[in-house]
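User: Assemble these into one structure.

Assistant: Restating your components, then the assembled model:
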Amino acid sequence: MLKLDDVTIKFDAITAVNSVSMEIATNEVVGLVGPNGAGKTTLFNAISGLVRPTSGQIFFNSTNILKAPLHTRARMGIGRSFQIPQPMHELTVRENLLVAQRFGTGKLVPSKVDEILAFLNLADKAQRNAATELSLTELKALEVGKALATAPKLLLLDEVLAGLETTGKRSFMNMLMDLHKKYELGILIIEHDIETISTLCSRVCVLNFGKLIADGTPNEVFRDPQVINSYTGGANA
Amino acid sequence: MKMRALMLVIPIAALYLLVPLLFRSNLYLMSLMVASLTIGGVALAWALLGNLGGMVSFGHAAFFGVGSYVSALLTMKLGLPVLPAMLLGGLGAALASLAMLPALRLKGPYFALAILAYAQIFRILATEFRGITGGAGGLSSIPALPQIFGFDFGSKVGGYVVILTMVITFVFIYYLIRKSYYGLALKAMHESEDATRVVGVNSTLLKALMLCVSAFMTGMIGAFNAHYINFLEPDYAFGASWTVVPIIAAIFGGYRTILGPLVGAIGVYMIDQLIFKNMLPTGHEIILGAMLVGMIIFSPTGLVPLISKKIRTRRFQLWSQNN
Amino acid sequence: MFELILQALYSGLLTGASYALIALGLALVFGTMKIINLAHGELVLLAAYIAYMTESWMKINPVFAIPIALVVVCLTSVIVYFLVSRIEKDRELNSLILTYGIGIILTNAVLLLWKADIHSTGNAWFQQPLVLGSLYSMNSEVIFSVVSVVLMVCVWWWLSRSWYGRAVRAVSSNRDAAKLMGVNPQWTELISFIVAGVLASFAGVAIYSSGVIQPAMGGSLTVKAFIITVLAGAGSIPGVLLGAILLGVAESLTITLYSSALQELTGMLLFLLVLFVLPNGLFGARGRRG
């Protein structure tokens, strides 16, 4: 479904992403891990369209989306949640999802929106101002909700668990597992928590300094000496 | 819903029937009404661009002038009837706004200044292409609004009815856009544009559309004005007054609301013409300038919201004293 | 033909240098506070009218008006500063509207005090030609340019060497850091407004000496000033001079090759070109515009 072909992203002198090639099949849950600054969010930005790669190609369902603008990619089925939640200002929680659904799918099905809100435990906050009246957990849930409302085929989740305390993390994790079962979509998830990744993902890709250094099942990847070195800063990193 | 619609019918009927009935013999007052509604319409279009589009413009005179000239020339050179020509005048202004699309990328103050530059450019072009536009001398004897079913729309009262209808229509369009999902997306775009783009909103297109709508409205009003006063010249049609007075009116009446700019325009224009102009025949604009300065410092969102806030605070104080 | 172009270049150079003096005050305030003072042209206008008043009342050379102009214009400039500093939200945009309003007040004040007639200096010496080779100019044009360059050098020296100047640069590049180092941003902003007033005073007297003045001029002076400021980019004094000369020469060539009516058009087109294509101006320091 998603294919990255030798994607390189440079910002002036810095190479954030270096010749990364990877594929994600429909309905697959893939983890994207790596130390801070490895280029994970930049890669997400390139897939969703906020950043243009310096070289390489990106294919989504066999279409080259390299030149496609942000909103087109959203309508094609690429959903994105941001690491630092970016709710739509001056709108309520429900309106956030309605707008996402209206423009992301071209149709308006309020019942589906309410379903998503219930699934994310946001139903009782539906009329609250999204930007000013939500807790961090709720904001993060809203991020996922907005993306879900666009009926995506691929969901990019950027560190949804970061900043949550243990109980929040647990319920979120359960919610993410249910998500895959319920909505039948591919998920590419950036997380630091190895336990979460191992539980959720069938495959893991590891980035270090912009390069893809491992791509396999969680078991294989987390025993890979190169991967361990990258986290502990060893000589081979 | 029905109740609210009914409540609107009464004031609108009053505007259409009572005002001409009461004032039709006082031509001066009627012409003031028409002029203030003209400015009100531009103020409304300006506020629409600011509120929905998120862009403050310093050059709405450009759209006003283009609309005036396009309509006047279509009737004079091609013999088109006046009312369709006015529509085309609006379209002409909307097309002219397409030339401003590159400016959409600019940040607030720079967009405002860029539009100012565009207004100057159009004014100079209108003065230069004298073959078409009659140059600095301008166009005179522009065809007036027609007679339909025996009612002369070219008269002061007729002009009043036309501009009133135009303004009410524009208010309705503004209301419809604001209520729609496009309106919601536009509201969110002010501070979280990327969040909207990532869910499929083509924010650039929406902003461009708002610019076109605002330009169309302003252009049509300019066209009306041309056929109402039957005379045009570049310094008048593209004059700074068509930019500045609507801005003062909109801010005075509260530019965040739909009706605020209209109320502001009628208020500001009437007071300026009836009072200030008598106090200082030349240079009465100085008071308008002072008003603008005062408003920005004390109440950037306008005086009407400020006054209503004071009333609400006072009411609350009284209530809490009694309870 | 070549002669004509050479003359156009020379006139443009002189005009440009004088534009630079008009623009420098606005550019300075823009560099310090990131706001565009749309009343700046009116400050210059005020100085010009003070020069007229001095000449017609006291029958002396308008140059002697400079001290009076300095006092009045700097005072007005300070008032503008205090009004602008009262703005709390959206400073960049609201100050634009605010200073526009102040500009309207000043233009109409001039109109009320001195009526709409045009005036120019009665002192004939200013209008006398100064011929260099085959290049023709007026005494006043050359003096204006020289004064302009001298003042620009002074300001440039002041910004780079003096303590006040360094404080101004510190605040404009990082306001909070400057505060932590003991610099009071409000003082430096006030100082830049005062210096802008000084520059405007000289520019106004020079304009009166070399051309005609009328109340409506304020607006077009402001427009020229901000075109040049944007051309130059933030934080560059040589940029202001070069940008001004570019504008002057472009206008001069337009007059010679096309028509004098399109002169204003040149400025506008140049302005839009820079806004769209070179957002940092021709010589400016880094800073995103869009």
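The mean pLDDT of chain B is 86.
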